[in-house]
UniProtKB/TrEMBL annotation, chain A:
Spans annotated as Disordered: 555-586
The protein's name: Circadian clock protein KaiC
EC numbers for this chain: 2.7.11.1
Enzyme class: transferase
Organism: Pelotalea chapellei
Highest rank taxon of the organism: Bacteria
Gene name for this UniProt entry: kaiC
Molecular function GO labels: protein serine/threonine kinase activity
Matches recorded under Gene3D superfamilies: P-loop containing nucleotide triphosphate hydrolases
Coiled coil: 498-550
TrEMBL record, chain B:
Organism annotation: Pelotalea chapellei
CDD domains: KaiB_like
Residue ranges annotated for the KaiB domain, each copy included: 25-106
Database matches in InterPro entries: KaiB-like, KaiB_domain, Thioredoxin-like_sf
Any matching Pfam family: KaiB
The protein, known as: Circadian clock KaiB family protein
Lineage: Bacteria, Pseudomonadati, Thermodesulfobacteriota, Desulfuromonadia, Geobacterales
Taxonomic superkingdom: Bacteria
């Protein structure tokens, strides 16, 4: 009863899916393979069909509690167990726990004589028993096409295959059937006509001696699915697909600012540094200090306690650590603390897509706040420019959605236009710094410009860029009538300037002293004049006093004389004189 | 192969018709028309060519499904020549007598 209820629900709703647990595959299939139906996985030799299907079973058994049956027509069970042990899959253990059944079907044409009518009931019985004995929900047939080479009656085979797929559906198992790629068809024996629900095509192509694996979902009946070719990776952790090309332009934009690690550069960038989650490109010719700037950036991130992932395509970890120590940056301490993780790979080690997948995986597992790619231009060695551009744009998009700040360096070849990146991604980045060699008076000096920095006020000035024992220092360049001066000519010009300033200062001081002296002289003169005035004034007063005395004396004499002559009294005269004296003093 | 071994083989081949025992096993899945045809055909061939020197065992995989895996059985019906060695497999309803004889490595009595 319960079963029929389940079925009814499955019909009502959208297609039910069996998650594969394989990184990325569930995303591009919108949740997994069609549940209870067969899926065809096809591709050329060595493209990873067996691995994909085995991982489907192992993950099903471990993560989704769905036991599985692996029926192999090519490899013996022991060989399979051995091969997958290197990927960390313990098939024997799973088999012992009744989570997995391996069945090797041996077919050898030379041992078999066909005489008349037959069917493949034996295979059905085997499969049925294997499914029922562990209650399997997942089945893999790898690769059933071996039947065609083992048995010659194709009519019987085709009829039996049709019956087999019906049988699998009736059993309600989610099945993967693998098929070898044919010359013009998806599979050599046209298996695709039996499996109508889902077809996945794996491709392993080689361009310029570098191999790239790609996956495409050719059809998925009744479900949305990604239609592009997705790169995938097979490594020690198994299969991983990257659905990155499906990313849109709807990533968040942070207003948080983070330091570039060079305070002067932060000042140039509106005083606060880069935006978190933005992409930064530093381009320049050889030896302009791109890696040093990157190291500063990484160092600053680690100082903030953030994790940094450093993809180095040119130098080894030890070499970078040693070189950066010479400019006073100790990266080793961050490596020890686990904040800084180096991933050193030669660009030609594998294809571009593989690089992308590897980077993707590393980013997923380390969850860094900042990523340094040094340099991106080297990736051109692994692919064409257009491919690198598409890869980087996908990477940058991916990093942006994760709010990871990306710091990329780019080596521009001398002679080419400087404001042109080797891989043409300048339009993708948010901040672009240009490091440039300035050649003048027999020496090369480094200059730094900010070509662009989206969404912030930034300096338009060139700065001289100096690698010292204490890291990068930015200096103002000398811009005078003779043009831009850097290096020793800047130094000598600065010295000249300093001398000039000094001279000026001295001249002013001299003038000041002169004025002071002049003031002293003036003061003295004023004092002398005042003294003279005082003396004259005193003399005048004395004269007046004496005059008064004389007047009084003569008045007294007159009075006495008048008294003696009995004359009239008059007093007006001395008063008039007194008044005049007062006015003079004023 | 050493000379003595060669001799032995030659002797065995010579004494074959007298000593050799044919152990044949027929795998079927229930009483289907094909399996009945196969058994009838097998019986007839054996009587004609291996009279008194054969033994037929019929294995029904519906009863013993495990044997399908253990004995690497795929198609049904399958006839397996257990003895004499090496093991040989013949699939089908054994309607083509010529092919059965070739498959069993039995030389028809001319």
């Amino acid at each position: 009863m319960a079963k029929s209820g389940k079925k009814a629900r499955a019909v009502d709703h959208t297609l039910r899916k069996a998650p594969t647990g394989i990184k990325g595959l569930d995303e591009i299939t919108g949740g997994g393979l069609p549940q209870g139906r067969p899926t065809l996985v096809c591709g050329g030799t060595g493209c990873g069909k067996t691995l994909l299907s085995m991982e489907f079973l192992v993950r099903g058994a471990l993560q989704f509690d769905e036991p599985g049956v692996f029926m192999s027509f090519e490899e013996k069970s022991e060989d399979l167990a051995k091969n997958f042990a290197s990927l960390g899959f313990d098939l024997d253990d799973l088999a012992a726990r009744d989570k997995l059944t391996l069945d090797y079907v041996h077919i050898d044409k030379s041992e078999i004589e066909e005489t008349g009518e037959y069917d493949l009931e034996g295979l059905f019985i085997r499969l049925g028993l294997a499914i029922d004995s562990i209650g399997a929900k997942r089945v893999v047939l790898d690769t059933i096409e071996a039947l065609f080479s083992g048995l010659s009656n194709e009519n019987i085979l085709r009829a039996e295959l049709r019956r087999l797929f019906t049988f699998l559906k009736d059993k309600g198992v989610t099945a993967i059937v693998t098929g070898e790629q044919g010359e013009r068809t998806l599979t050599r024996y046209g298996l695709e006509e039996y499996v109508a629900d889902c077809v996945i095509f794996l491709n392993h192509s080689i361009t310029q001696q570098i191999a790239t694996r790609r996956m495409r979902i050719i059809k998925y009946r009744g479900s949305y699915h990604g239609t592009n070719e997705y790169p995938f990776l097979i490594d020690e952790q198994g299969f991983s697909v990257m659905p990155i090309s499906s990313l849109g332009l709807d990533h968040p934009a942070s207003t948080e600012r983070i330091s570039s690690g060079v305070s002067r550069l932060d000042t140039m960038l509106g005083g606060k540094g880069f935006y978190r989650g933005s992409s930064i490109l530093v381009s320049g010719t050889a030896g302009t200090g791109k890696s040093s700037l990157a190291a500063h950036f990484a160092d600053a991130a680690c100082r903030r306690g953030e994790r940094c992932l450093y993809f180095a395509f040119e130098e080894s970890q030890n070499q970078i650590v040693r070189n950066m120590r010479s400019i006073g940056i100790d990266l080793e301490q961050w490596v020890h603390k686990g904040l800084l993780i180096f991933l050193n790979n030669r660009p030609t080690l594998y294809g571009l897509e593989m690089h992308l997948v590897t980077m993707h995986k590393a980013i997923e597992s380390h969850m860094p706040a900042v990523v340094v790619i040094d340099p991106i231009s080297n990736l051109v060695a692994a692919a064409s420019e257009a491919e690198v551009k598409s890869m980087l744009s996908r990477l940058i998009d991916y990093l942006k959605t994760k709010q990871i700040t990306a710091f990329c360096t780019d080596l521009t070849t001398a002679g080419g236009g400087l404001e042109k990146t080797e891989v043409g991604i300048s339009s993708l980045v948010d901040s672009w710094l240009l490091l440039q060699n300035i050649e003048a008076s027999g020496e090369r000096n480094r200059g730094l410009y900010i070509l662009k920095s989206r969404g912030m006020d930034h300096s338009n000035q060139i700065r001289e860029f100096i690698l010292s024992d204490n890291g990068i220092q930015l200096r103002d360049v000398y811009i005078g009538p003779g043009g831009v001066l850097t290096g020793s000519s800047r130094l000598s010009q600065e010295a000249r300037d300093r001398a000039e300033v000094f001279e000026h200062k001295q001249a002013i001081e001299r003038k000041y002293r002169e004025v002071e002296q002049k003031k002293v002289v003036v003061d003295a003169q004023i004092a002398a004049l005042q003294a003279q005035y005082q003396a004259e004034k005193e003399e005048l007063e004395m004269i007046i006093a004496r005059e008064n005395e004389r007047d009084e004396a003569s008045a007294a004499g007159n009075l006495a004389l008048a008294r003696s002559r009995k004359a009239d009294e008059f007093t007006t005269r001395p008063e008039t004189i007194g008044k005049t004296g007062k006015g003079g003093r004023k | 192969m050493t000379a003595s071994q060669k001799k032995k083989t030659a002797e065995a081949q010579q004494s074959e018709p007298v000593e050799e025992k044919w152990m044949l096993r027929l795998y079927v899945a229930g009483q289907t028309p094909k399996s009945i045809t196969a058994f009838t055909n097998l019986k007839k061939i054996c009587e004609e060519h291996l009279a008194g020197r054969y033994q037929i065992e019929v294995v029904d995989l519906l009863i013993n499904p495990k044997l399908a895996k253990d004995d690497q059985i795929l198609a049904l019906p399958t006839l397996v020549r257990k003895l004499p060695e090496p093991i040989k497999k013949i699939i089908g309803d054994l309607s083509n007598t010529e092919r059965v004889l070739v498959g069993l490595d039995v030389r028809p009595i001319s």
